[in-house]
Amino acid sequence: MLTSQTIHNKPVSNIDFFKPSLWALILLILLTQACKKSSDTTPAPVTLPVLSTTAVTDISSTGATSGGNITSEGSSPVTSRGVVWGTSSNPTIVLPTKTSDGSGSGIFTSNLTGLTSGARYYVRAYATSSSGTAYGNEQTFTATAIVQNDIPVLDGKIAAFMSTYNIPGASLAVSKNGKLVYMKGYGFADQGASTYVTPAYRFRLASVTKTYTGVAIMKLFQEGKLDLDGKVFGAGSILGTDFGTPPYNPNLTAITVRMLLQHITGAWGAATGGDVIDQNPAFTNKQQLDWIIDTRPMPDAPGSVFDYSNINYFILGRIIEKITGQTYYDYIHSIMTLIGATDTEAADKTLAERKPLEVVYYGQGTDAPYVYNIAFPRRDADAGLIATAKDLLKLITAVDGFNTRPDILNASTITQFITPSSVFSGYACGIGIWSAQNLWFNDGSLPGTRSWFMRHDNGMCVAILLNSRPDVDPGNAFAYAFQALELDIVTNASYSWQDIDQF
Length: 503
Hints:
Oligomer: single chain
CATH class of the largest domain: Alpha Beta
Radius of gyration: 34 Å
Strand order of the largest sheet: 11-10-9-19-18-17-16
CATH architecture of the largest domain: 3-Layer(aba) Sandwich
Largest sheet: 7 strands, antiparallel
CATH topology of the largest domain: Beta-lactamase
Number of helices: 11
């Protein structure tokens, strides 16, 4: 029986004396049960998928077939699976050379593409889930080596052309329907060392570089980063007042990106004030363009006349740099990496600066003093690249509009790229247009250098690079002979091109 007591004049029952202890006991019991429950709950183990890699079959010079078998998805569902391959052991999915072949467990088949003839590859199946990525066993194989058969008639024509015009070395690349069907070196890369040209040798591209610049501008246009009809100089324009001294000549502020591409700025050409690209060789890019804007005449209204000028493309280089935040050469490198053209680099000025696997250049007659005295690397966007003939065709076949090799420009952008101005139908946006022969082309010429490519509507493309040129060309005999040589290659149906791909 409970009794009442008076504590400090307050009635209290006996149970009041036990309340603190009672609540402590209850809390202790609850905590004990919770800990027991927690200790009894063990997290499920995290396990990766289990899989194997299928043996490689159907091996060719450019492709193969493999796949995998996922026998267990592990602790979470497989969300992505495929194979990854490379030229080093244990390739991982950080490589771009991989397939994506669905999800879940079971057997899958994968097609490997873009292989290099004769190269040894390592391949592993992979399976990715929220738990991570697992790999199957490694398989190895070697892509089939391509044996290219000589075409004596064609080789003889090139040898005769070189002999006639005293050309020490040349490199040829020919593609048909997106496949590199013929490539060959001729003559000497270095006469003094008796080193012969092979397809791996690189040559100065001279004005063929303008095609690369045109493609770069078109890519930025396609990505919505510039307007081809946008103004280049003045308030609210792409370059604003970064160069030269305002107030500007009204002709300068009327120039658009498209006018630069099509050589219709009305300035800086042979007939419109002079092409001064090589003057002030010690100037930086900014100093040179400041000087051009502040001192050189602009006699004709932009859009009214075609006059070829290296300055137009020099300015396009500055536009590329302003929009991308990269140097011209770095941005071009990013495009070349995208298409696997890794042998394209910046040209340098002197013989001592010659890049690995770059030919020696030979100046004939009055050209001789100038071969290693060109304002590289400042002459970047108009003439500043070196490449192999193969790399050059990698670019051309990446913008050719055919459905063979993937293009980096879409159809509407290519239409802009190949559309000439209303004042001259023979030049578009970094390429020449020869409508009568159904082809695009470009050619380059500097002391010790001549380059040319053609892309025909019949699916044929050709590039020829030379390490010399005649210093004088009466009646343009050399230029016409070079043109005829390339035209013969893309149109002569008697050549038996192998069904091979050396890209």
